[in-house]
Each structure stands twice: as C-alpha cells, then as structure tokens.
Design brief:
Blueprint lengths: L2 E7 L4 E7 L4 E7 L10 H18 L13 E6 L4 H10 L5 E5 H9 L5 E6 L3 E6 L5 E5 L11 H16 L8 H8 L5 H9 L5 H6 L1 H9 L3 H25 L6 H5 L4 E6 L6 H14 L3 E5 L4 H12 L6 H6 L6
Parallel strand pairs: 1-4, 4-5, 6-9, 9-10
Antiparallel strand pairs: 1-2, 2-3, 6-7, 7-8
Helix pairs in contact: 1-2, 3-12, 4-9, 8-9, 9-11
Length: 330
C-alpha cells in the first residue's frame, strides 16, 4: 500500500493520521506527549509514543506487520527544537521521505488548508506564522513565558495575579479577581498567593489555567478582567500584523493596491475561546488591514502535517480533496 503519514507531537498528546495515494484519510490514532527530548528519558518516550501511535493506526486498517511498511512520505510537526527529534525519527520511521518541522509550520498548513495566509496560536504560549503564494515565510513570537507569549493563556493568568497585587498596592481599581483567586487558591493574602508560584507549588500551566477564571469574571461584568482579555487580543493581533508586514507587504502604488487579494488570518488555541479576546483580535486585525479574512483554523495541525507529507512527495491534492478533510474528527 502507498501510504502517507502525518504526525503532530506536542506537550499533551501525539496525534497521527494516515492517508492513501488518492488523499483519503484511512487511519488515525493518538498517544501521549512526545516533546522535551532534552530531558532524561525524553528520547525513549518519543520513540515509544511514536511507534505505538503508528502501530495503532496501521493496525486499525488490517496491517499486521506495521514495522515492515514503508511510507511514501512522512511529516512530523514537533514542539520545540527538531534536531534531536529528527535523528530519532530517521532511525525508527520507515519512509522514503521524512520531514520534521516546528509545530507552528504544520499548524499553519492545517489552519489555511495549505493556502497563503497566517495562523496565530494562543494556548499556554503564543506564536504566529505566515506564508505567501511565493513561498516566503515568517514566524513572530514563540519565545516562551519568560520573554514572550504575549496574549497567551499564561499572559492572561499572570495579568490576573498582577491585577490583584496592584489592587492591594492601591495602584489599580478593585476587581472581583481578588476574592475569586483568594477563595479558589485557598490563600488569604497577596503574599500567600505569590508564594505558591515562587515556591513552585503552582506551575506555569496552572497560571495559564487562571485565564478561564478571568473570562468568567469578565462575563460577570468585571472591567479589569475585560481589559486584560481585550489587551490579550490586541497583543495577538500585533503578532499577526508583524507577520503581515513581512510576507504580505502592501504595494506602493495605488493601481496594485486596488487589485490586492484577500488572505486568511486564522486563529487557534484556548485563549481564543474568550469572546473578549477573539473580538479584540478580530477587530484589531480587520481594522488594520482590509485584505484580511479572520476565521478559525480550517484543519487541525495533524492534518497540516499530512498535507505537508503529500507536498514533500510531489503529490498535489485538489482543494476539494483537502476540503473533505474538514469532516474528519482527529
């Protein structure tokens, strides 16, 4: 069988899809996380999770000896650096062509279904990537919680704690975030609140989880929370605007500006579940550049990996074939 493999390996799960030579998705599976290969046991975990996921997918379509099958092409979108992961995958995955990319690359391919455009991801962290019809690409953000992650769930959670501390210092208005955080985190003072994070009792991911409470407070009418979320949306829009300037620059003359084509600005990630974040983001992007069509990602990242695998093998799938993937639940 001539099969193609797409994998999206992340911090929480590894998703796998298999397509045939006509572009039909014939199998899929999911497994545990496969990132952080620099940590002790990380390389072994990556190998174990990837092989198990591939075996499960191939087993579901009756391939009894999955280790003997060679894929026409395989693409892996992976969180973080790709060098170590590439060496491991070259050794364990049987394929004529192997492509290993940063996960923002396959996420972009999925978000726009392979068409020119931009994708902004805002989960625990944030990053934006875009590509035009000429193949020029740019990435903005993705520098982690210490130096970046603007507009992300982590940024929102940190802003909530800072709002509570600012209220205590009488430098900012009162906010219902203060009693909400105190009660739900079982603390009675700002000192106890910050100590939980500085001592490592509560993690970065936990801080990102506070974004849900900020949205809850905003929906209850808390103006401080609403402004935090709106500012997050504006920050994410600035990421998109920076990518637009790099890969979709406006022509200098009025004649070409009149015939400019629209392009997609897609969004994905938990932070966009807040209507305040999404509305602020959409308005900021649309008002700054009328060429943009803001919409949610068309396809998930794992299907972006599969699309890149086909392209790496020189297989040009029709738009209707790729469009049919939207019916696939991955």
């Amino acid at each position: 069988m001539r099969l193609f493999l797409g994998v999206d390996g992340g911090q929480t799960a590894t998703k796998t899809v298999v397509g045939d030579e006509q572009g039909a998705i014939v199998a899929q599976s999911s497994g545990g996380p496969s990132n952080h290969t620099e940590e002790p046991g990380g390389p072994e975990r990556l190998e174990r999770v990837v092989l198990a996921s591939i075996h499960e997918a191939l087993g579901s379509i009756g391939i009894s000896n999955p280790d003997e099958l060679t894929f026409v092409a395989a693409c892996f979108g992976m969180t973080g650096e790709t060098e170590i992961k590439t060496r491991i995958l070259q050794r364990i995955v049987r394929t004529e062509r192997l492509k290993v990319v940063h996960d923002s690359v396959n996420a972009l391919a999925g978000a726009t279904a392979g068409q020119p455009g931009i994708n902004v991801i805002a989960g625990t962290g944030s990053v934006a990537r875009g590509a035009n019809a000429q193949g020029d690409e740019a990435r903005v953000g993705g520098w982690g919680h210490m130096f970046g992650d603007e507009g992300s769930a982590y940024w929102i959670g940190r802003a909530a704690v800072r709002a509570t501390l600012a209220e205590y210092d009488r430098m900012a208005p009162k906010t219902i975030l203060t009693p909400m955080l105190f009660e739900r985190l079982s603390v009675t003072s700002p000192y106890q609140l910050t100590e939980k994070y500085y001592a490592g009792t509560l993690s970065r991911d936990h801080l990102a989880g506070l974004s849900v409470w900020v949205d809850e407070a905003a929906n209850q009418g808390d103006q401080v929370s609403q402004e935090i979320l709106r500012e997050a949306g504006r920050d994410l829009a600035r990421l998109a605007q920076a990518v637009i300037a790099l890969v979709f620059p406006r022509p200098d003359d009025a004649l070409h500006r009149a015939s400019e084509q629209k392009f997609l600005v897609c969004y994905a990630g938990g932070a966009f579940q807040s209507e305040f974040v999404l509305a602020s983001f959409s308005d900021s992007v649309s008002n700054s550049d009328r060429r943009t069509e803001v919409r949610p990602a068309l396809l998930p990242p794992v299907l972006g990996s599969l699309l890149l695998a086909y392209r790496d093998a020189g297989v040009d799938l029709s738009r209707s074939t790729v469009g049919s993937w939207t019916k696939t639940t991955v």
